[in-house]
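Task: sequence design from structure.
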């Protein structure tokens, strides 16, 4: 896709771009709604990427164009970028420029042409991919020297403040820092990371992504409500973040919350989910990848019953996959739609896929999009 985007830029702006970059979407293997609780996550990068051809400008103008959106070039003045005012796709790249400048980095303008293969609204971090690809391009072109984790932080700030979606740090870090063939074990408190080898094919297994086609949006209220509820739970327990509740002290903590059922459910999910991430890391390191199946299933139950962010389509994927022999399955990402992942023996993939498709048809749901996910590379310069 790099060549196409390079050519698209030249056609649009009349000169070749200074460079072309790409940044992937992600799926999260385990560790959901833990990232804004200072907890653990374990995403890996998808082969689907956002690609950007970019050149610098010196005149305080930002020109943006997307091959995926109808409409021409959008021209913005850097001095006019105001958080919360843009409700369209341009808020993501513009938000990154805003965040860089607000942090004191001398970005004086850019021409940008983008194209993305990350499905939008599918819970696969299409917006983080857009942010990170622009951040990496500007970091290179303006020689800002920012490390990847810092770029992820700036992209999160763009998303939280400029776009106005109260998300955590997982998606941007995944897009910026993942490595091919690995899942990223990330501690969201200090962004320390470990690349965990994750080669399911070598073990005779596959990981499927099932996009339910139910569109979700983080700027809508439910995500923010869960986040606020977790912060309230931490305050009630007298800890900085739910990450600070030791696994062995969960029961005592829940007892202290008494009949505050809402807090009990949110706290229980986050603390057990952190423990599940560590369990998955341990199992993979011990060379026992099949054993992660039940841990994924437990994660789904917790998101469905305690965190209450699943939906009938996601539950149907999980139930059908498990009933037809999958090793594990769960919703992935923010919830309320989007995608599920299914871990299955290679030999069972066709049966499971067919069963999910038939179950969707029988329930009268839109046909899901199913594809295999193999851990791909993080953001990089293409040319
Ligand atoms: C979305 C957010 C992430 C994270 C997940 C849930 O993808 O962008 O920060 O909170 O939901 O794990």
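Answer:
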């Amino acid at each position: 896709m790099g060549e196409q985007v390079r050519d698209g830029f030249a056609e649009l702006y009349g000169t070749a771009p200074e460079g072309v970059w790409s940044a992937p979407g992600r799926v999260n293997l385990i560790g959901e709604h833990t990232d804004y609780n200072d907890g653990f996550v374990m995403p890996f990068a998808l082969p689907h990427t956002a690609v950007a051809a970019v050149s610098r400008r010196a005149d305080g103008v930002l020109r943006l164009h997307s091959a995926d959106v109808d409409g021409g070039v959008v021209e913005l003045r850097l001095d006019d970028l105001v958080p919360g005012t843009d409700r369209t796709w341009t808020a993501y790249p513009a938000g990154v420029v805003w965040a860089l400048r607000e942090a004191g980095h001398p970005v004086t303008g850019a021409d940008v042409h983008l194209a993305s293969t990350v499905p939008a609204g599918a819970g696969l971090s299409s917006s983080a991919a857009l942010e990170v690809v622009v951040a990496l391009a500007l970091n290179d072109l303006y020689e800002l020297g920012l490390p990847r984790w810092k770029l992820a932080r700036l992209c999160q700030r763009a998303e939280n403040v400029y776009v106005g979606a109260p998300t955590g740090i997982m998606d941007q870090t995944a897009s910026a820092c993942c490595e091919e063939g690995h899942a990223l074990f990330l501690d969201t408190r200090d962004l320390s990371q470990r690349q965990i080898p994750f080669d399911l094919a070598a073990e005779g297994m596959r990981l499927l992504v099932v996009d339910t086609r139910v569109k979700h949006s983080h700027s809508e209220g439910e995500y923010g409500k869960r986040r606020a509820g977790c912060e309230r739970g931490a305050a009630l327990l007298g800890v900085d973040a739910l990450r600070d509740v030791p696994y062995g002290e969960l029961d005592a903590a829940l007892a202290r919350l008494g009949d505050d059922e809402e807090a009990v459910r949110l706290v229980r999910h986050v603390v057990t989910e952190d423990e599940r991430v560590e369990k998955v890391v341990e199992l993979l390191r011990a060379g026992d990848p099949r054993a992660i199946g039940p841990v994924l299933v437990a994660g789904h139950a917790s998101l469905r019953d305690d965190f209450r962010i699943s939906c009938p389509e996601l539950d149907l994927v999980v139930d059908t996959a498990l009933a037809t022999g999958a090793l594990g399955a769960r919703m992935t990402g923010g919830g309320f739609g989007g995608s599920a992942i299914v871990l299955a023996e290679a030999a069972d993939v066709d049966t499971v896929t067919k069963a999910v498709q038939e179950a969707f048809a029988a329930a009268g749901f839109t046909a899901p999009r199913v594809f295999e996910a193999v851990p791909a590379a993080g953001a990089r310069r293409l040319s």
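DSSP finds eleven helices and 13 strands in the chain.
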